[in-house]
Amino acid sequence: MKKLILSLTLFSLLAGTVPAVLAADPPAAAPAAAPAAAAAAPAAPAKHPNAELVEKLGPAAAPQSDLRVGLDTLWVLVAGMLVFFMNTGFGMVESGLCRAKNCVNILAKNFVVFAIATMSFWVIGWGLMFGDGSGFMGKEGLWFVSGADNSPALGKGYEAMNPFSTTEYSGVYAAINWSPVPLWAKFFFQLVFAGTAATIVSGAVAERIKFSSFIVFSVVLVAIMYPITGHWIWGGGFLGANNFRDFAGSTVVHSVGGWAALAGAIVLGPRLGKFGSDGKARPLPGHNMTSAALGVFILWLGWFGFNPGSTMAAMNGSAISHILVNTNIAAVTGSLGALITAWVLLKKPDLSMVLNGCLAGLVAITAPCAFVSIGSGAIIGFIAGVIVVLSVLFFDKVRVDDPVGAISVHLVNGVWGTLALGLFYHGKKQFGDSAIANTVAALDTGLTRMEQVMVQLKGIVAVGAFTLVASLAVWFILKAVMGIRVSPEEETEGLDIGEHGNEAYPNFQSVGGK
Amino acid sequence: MKKIEAIIKPFKLEEVKDALSDIGVEGMTVTEVKGFGRQKGHTEIYRGSEYTVDFLPKIKLELVLPDARVDAAVAAMVKAAKTGKIGDGKVFVSPVDDAIRIRTDEKGDAAI
Questions:
Q1: Does residue A158 form part of some domain?
Q2: How many CB pairs lie under 8 A apart between chains A and B?
Q3: Closest CA to A103 of A495, A490, A501, A487
Q4: Do A346 and B48 touch (CB under 8 A)?
Q5: Does the interface ipTM go beyond 0.85?
Q6: Does any domain span residue A46?
Q7: Which CATH number goes with the domain that contains A424?
Q8: Is A346 touching B (CB cutoff 8 A)?
Q9: Residue contact A396–B46, C-beta within 8 A
């Protein structure tokens, strides 16, 4: 029964792609009119803001436009590749912090989750998230990113993103028509973000989840849940339209992954032997701290694509630099905050806590990085480092078993970062023309800090309620229909053998492995 | 023939091996083990959870020698492995019924 459901899920996913592959290429995007011709159209009601410059440049305008788009695209794609590489970091962190007998399974989950995310986001996720539609979800251009679209043409109000073109955006992905790059660049960049959200879940459910159930959950997460909440915030939906801000995804990516992870950990239950009959948590130490530490360094580097890349354009060097420095400083102060907290509370500076602290800082700065000062970023990161240590201890106390601290890093600090955006908001209301929140990708709301905090809070609650409830529902359904947890015998032997028939370290013998 | 089994601190392995080599002992088998005697473990914290480390890493050496050489070997091992601090380990001597060299089928003292 369970194998049947898994097979049907995978088959329908793959089968759904066959029509796309066999069909002719989607109709070519509306050809970009020659800039000069557009500028010369006499009956246009209002002159395009770039028309004068384009006219003046004459035949030089088109190559200039191409160069501009090329540079923007280069930045977006390279940043996207850095974010893709974060999957390596996640794989190394998770496998390092878990036991050797489950190493293959964890790596396999990390591999398959990106594959699932790519397919799900391609088939329908992109469309639900960025297609024109209601405040709740996209409705146009749903399937296979094939809606009409003439990117890199820019939408009304965004003409300054490419002063050398007078082509207006025409298509069904208007929510993202402020970015001067081609459609597939937008897709790739957003895809690797979706993949990041999905892989967060794998850490919290590690060492006891059934591989097949994890696959099915990931499909639902990236095909439906993630795109819907993403639509609310980045896709033209009701949160973004009402002054909710999340620059690179503390809520969209990290808290969504975190809520799904929390739901999974709750429905799954703790690992065997994690909690004694007295309720006290027992440590199940990771098997490779080298892997975990190097993994965090890789994630840190990847975040240099995650945050600065979210400008989705290259030309505002000041903005990109500001965001990158903010990202870095939060990682640093997050590490320090966790280091100090662990040292004080737990008597020794536990490396796994410091690593969690670094990631917590990065998660927390993800939303505010383009909206706050560097000083604020440092504070936000430090507080994140303190919070993550306390959160790890808290979840052990309430008997939610999270082998790698994914919930504490991504959910708790995703929420903190989203709130911090409001608390430290550097907007025009307070700072006038010197406001940091004044770029296309980081649009000012005109609110005071406290007003912004209230807006952020509403978004946190909306996304949290939806994602948690939906995730719990899916996990419970999967539990009833196909089971989500391996047998106790398999869990004791190790999922590497049970789920995959592989061993990660076949020639090593370990004494007293639990 | 006697079998000598010694549990020693891991960093003492080279010293013990050299001491045995100096008196002409040419073979031994070594295993990485964990253990404790009266030396108590200690408490550590991993991600906020306490655990006791009872089992400490040790090295077990095993060698089989003719009766005449046992006392000298044991004395050399004890001298080389001693630090004077708790956890130095123990040496056990037990009788061996037979020994066979696999390559040549030699038996008894000729095999060791």
A1: no
A2: 37
A3: A495
A4: yes
A5: no
A6: no
A7: 1.10.3430.10
A8: yes
A9: no
Q: What is the total count of domains within chain A?
A: 1
Structural domain of A365: 2-17+54-141+184-500
Distances in Å between the Cα of A445 and the Cα atoms of A178, A437, A452 are 17, 8, 8
User: Does residue A441 contact residue A281 with C-beta atoms inside 8 Å?
Assistant: no
Look up the domain containing B64 and give its range: 2-111
Backbone angles phi, psi at B100, to 5 degrees: -130, 130
The answer to whether B43 faces chain A, any CB pair under 8 Å, is: no
If one counts the domains in chain B, the total is 1
Is A146 inside any structural domain? no
Q: And the tokens for A272? A: 């065997």
Is there a contact between A283 and B49 if contact means CB atoms under 8 Å apart?
A: yes
Nearest to B49 among A282, A348, A511 (CB): A282
Residue A438 φ/ψ, nearest 5 degrees: -150, 40
Q: Do A392 and B34 touch (CB under 8 A)?
A: no
> Which one of A396, A511, A512 has the shortest CB-CB distance to B48?
A396
Which B residues, 65 through 104, put their C-beta within 8 Å of a C-beta on chain A? none
Q: Which CATH number belongs to the domain containing residue B45 in this structure?
A: 3.30.70.120
Q: What is the pLDDT along chain A (514 residues), one digit of tens a residue?
A: 656 656 666 665 565 455 445 443 444 444 444 444 444 455 556 789 999 999 999 999 999 999 999 999 999 999 999 999 999 999 999 999 999 999 999 999 999 999 999 999 999 999 999 999 999 999 999 999 999 999 999 999 999 999 999 999 999 999 999 999 999 999 999 999 999 999 999 999 999 999 999 999 999 999 999 999 999 999 999 999 999 999 999 999 999 999 999 999 999 999 999 998 888 899 999 999 999 999 999 999 999 999 999 999 999 999 999 999 999 999 999 999 999 999 999 999 999 999 999 999 999 999 999 999 999 999 999 999 999 999 999 999 999 999 999 999 999 999 999 999 999 999 999 999 999 999 999 999 999 999 999 999 999 999 999 999 999 999 999 999 999 999 999 999 999 999 999 999 987 765 445 4
CA gap A34, A11 in Å, rounded: 45
Kind of pairing between the strands at B89-95 and B29-35: unpaired
Judge residue B86's burial from the number of C-beta atoms within 10 Å of its C-beta, 0-12 exposed, 13-18 middle, 19 or more buried: exposed
Looking at the domain assignment, is residue A440 inside a domain? yes
Q: Any CB–CB contact under 8 A between A446 and chain B? A: no
Structure token pair of residue A259: 């809520």
- Of the residues A343, A356, A511, A514, the best mutation for testing chain B's interface (the one with the most B CB atoms within 10 Å of its CB) is A511
